[in-house]
Request: fold
Amino acid sequence: MDRGLRLQDVRLSKDATPLLALDAKIAPGDVLTLMGPSGSGKSTLLSYVMGDLPPAFAATGAVRLDGHDILTLPTDKRRISILYQDPLLFPHLDVATNLAFGLPRTVPRAKRRAMVDAALADVDLDGFGPRDPASLSGGQAARVALMRVLLAGPAAVLLDEPFSKLDANLRDRMRSLVFDRVRDAAIPALLVTHDEDDARAAGGQVIRL
Amino acid sequence: MRLPLIAALTAFALPAIAGPDPTDWPAVEAEAQGQTVYWHAWGGSTTTNDFIAWIGDQAAAKGVTLEHVKLADTADAVGLVLTEKQAGKTEGGSVDLIWINGANFASMKDQDLLFGPFADALPNWQFVDVDGKTVTTDFTVPTDGFESPWAMAQVVFIYDSERVPAPPASAQALRDWILANPGRFTFPQPPDFLGTTFLKQMLIDMVDDPAVLQAPVGDTYADVTAPLWAFMDQITPALWRQGRAYPQTGPRQLQLMNDGEVDIAISFSPGEATAAIANYELPSTARTYVFDKGTLGNASFVAIPFNANAKAGAMVIADLLLSPQAQLRAQTPDILGYGTVLDMDKLPADARAGFDALDLGVATLSPAELGQALAEPHPSWADRLSADWVARYGVAN
Amino acid sequence: MLRPLPLITALVLAGPVLFGVFGTILPAFGVGQPAGQGAPLAQVIAWPGLASALRLSVTTGVLSTVGALAIATLILAGWHGTASFRVIERLLSPLLAVPHAAAALGLAFLIAPSGWVLRVPALALGWDVPPDLLILQDPWGLSLTAGLIAKELPFLLLMMLASLPQTQAPACLRVAQSLGAGRVAGWLKAVFPSIYTQVRLPVMVVLVYGMTNVDVATILGPNTPPTLSVQVTRWMMDPDLALRATAAAGALVQMGAVIAVLFLWTWAERGAARLGRRWIWSGLGLPERLSRALGLTFAILSATAVLAGIAALAVWSLAARWQFPALLPEAPSLRAWTRFGPEMLSVAGDTLLIAGVATLVALILVIGCLEAEHRFGLTTGQRALWLLYLPLLIPQVAFLPGLQFLPVWAGAGPGLTLVILGHVIFVVPYVFLSLSGPFRAWDTRYAKVSAGLGASPDRTLWRLRLPMLLAPALTAAAVGVAVSVGQYLPTLLLGGGRVSTLATEAVALAAGGDRRAIGVWGLGQTLAALLPFAAALLLPALVYRNRRGLRHG
Reply:
């Protein structure tokens, strides 16, 4: 079987004006970096992969995940998670519930707790489970957001400029954490950025639009 | 959507005078068991509301549930029945009993919106003062048994005895007093019924032959009413707020008296002042008086719409209202202070003793002082007078 | 399930309105009326008070709208973001819930020549009787206008506040101020245009209400003649049943006037915009200190007037004898409360039941519409918005009389169900107004994150969106309850008089004028509308007491 994320002759247009054409393959654990100025269609491409293309845009081409065509699936069935520049922790749930949000419902209670605790320990946030997300620092929140995605066990990850709002020193640490985890979990990742350092740290192929 | 609506608007079905037979009273009482009667009655007077609630308690003992639908205006209920008739709803209607008289009754009777005749078949009808009180005609319109009386009303004037030592007891005297005391008198704004009553009261005090008012308005209208309009032209600039604003209802007018804004007010209930004093709604120095030539009187009735859902229950309520206990309660000054429709001579001795023992209260005139009420003019007079008043003074600004 | 909801909502709102208007138009042209009455429209035109009544409707409606809009703008421009503003906001917000009739009755006692305000000089100067001054019910409708301004100001202010986040107000203001404009002038030039675009429809709702309200106009407005809507209601209530057709024709004239004024208003908007642009180019400023002082004074004045009016009602409900010129009753008395209290409470229960069900239905419709908009991109365009506002833009007197036929025609019979349905028509627009801003402002990236974590759209709605929007949803519910509690004509007409609510009882009593009873019922009505607001404020604060991220959301 053909593992990984495959973007097959994808063409985006806005109001019938061609915007972007792309043919790429991301192997499990690899990061494909898309670079380009604002308005070049990077984020729109992510929307297309997620399955909610804004009305003004049109797209053709296939998106395959581990060999399956996912374009017919609704967003929540595609098993593609996304990380934004904001951690977007759900403000009304505590940190532990945020982390457990994406766990399959079949996972029993005790195991959920163990998985959440392990995930917290993994990113040096032991005991942060009952905390209010609003009380976390930017770096802490970013780590929780990453672990929330990983716990859901996605088949691919989209990264929409995930480091752009972090302080410079935090940014480096977060980069290596994210790319390490993506590699360890053997998930194909698609990174959208306009920071050359992001591309360098990602280490994979870079497409400039 | 269009066709059924037009059908709804134009379906003038004939009223089916189906329903219980009033002359078979035991059957009426049996049918009334368990019925709920929606009595549409003006809800603007809290004392009346309390009295109706008391009637509800009495009705419960007879197995009838009474719901008082409090109206801002009796015409609401009339309109509801009319709407139902236009829509072809000839049974199961939403109004079972209406507190009604005068033009509303004339209008409903005229349009066949009423059930009956039933009034003279009520058991307590035997006590009603048919000869002495105007209970079988309503503003000159024969009731024909389509409505049953429950209270007598007569025009009295309420005055603050502290400010007005000698109240003016005729239209002319009132005019002189108003001109001498500008801004201290007003009346509810016609077409409010009490305001219209004020116009009728002034007119009947001025005309040479009150009998002309018993016939429908005719060609002589202009001549008959000329003195009234001259009178109104004189007093209006000297009224409260120079006649540029009026209280909208009788109770509002009493409130003005309590606020010290006016000194004399018209009322259609001889006992109202006493009850109002007891309820802190008038100064304790308020008293009542009538004109030397007498004042207008009429009866309040209840009627049953042709499509009422609980006709038997409604008749039971109408009968209850005529019972000596209910009539005594209604006449008790600090409860309601309404005049009874019963004939004292027809009552059993013990019932009569209750009425004899009644202390009418500080501000209520005795029957002798009230005198015989003057008969209400034909309803067409009220319509015409209030319409003319509105045209002359009601849109002046 | 979700997809047809916007259409259903549109039908629920527009259907009854159009049916009602139709049912009003037919009798206005003499259809279904007994023959030989003459054309109803001709009778309306022949009514000698028509010109004055129309003029009065238009002037009070337009003046009160302009006044409320100007004061709300001055407060926002001059004080937004200051401590005083928070005080004003806190003072004005509860006024939103005070039912119009209760506010008007309180105000009437306050400003009458024998009222609270003039009793102070009366006591000091030893007046024996109150001065014979035409303050209340003045022929120009000034006290009516003032009452409407006091009541509509909180609504417009809160609407404008709600629309602030959708504009770049702080940034625009900073830019304007850095260019040398004063605070008020800068705000008016840079922020007001975009705010006004957002609140345009609510402003028109205020305009229509100002022109067509019945309850406030009967209490504070003149009567020789009254405003057209009051006169139409009188014709409707007249014992002479033939006048019902006249009433329908009058309602039609009223509707024509409303449409004409709305048209003129949009025309004036364009003129104002042009003038505004010229003003911006002129570089002229404003008397800053005076404008700020004016805004604050008027805001405090209208807030205290309504609050003092309510206080007056409260005192009356506890008063034994109380005559001019005493400031307080001779003695306190619980009699009014023992007489009317128990019944008031039981009616309050029914009122809240109706309000609760109507609000629940409205919430389901509105949330369904907004969620459908979010999920399927079914954007409610400007035209759909007009549809939503239809029940508020068509005068009630123009379609409720016609709507009366609906129950009889549908064979349902008047009653609770129809009243609730009728309330839904009026509750939905306000709930939508109140909830759509926060709902649309919700960061949809949360939904993408959630979907990426495998959560279905329904799970996202129930577990994330609604809990995060708990505060605005509860506020919208409280608005819905307040609107329902205030409905008089729909309750009366659709309930066939059998359904009593605090509003129908209070207005029926207002006709009588027993201030103690009005006090008890008016307070009951005010509380029934206010308590849900308090709950809407308290509940989220309690539930999310440990969630800083939602504290100011």
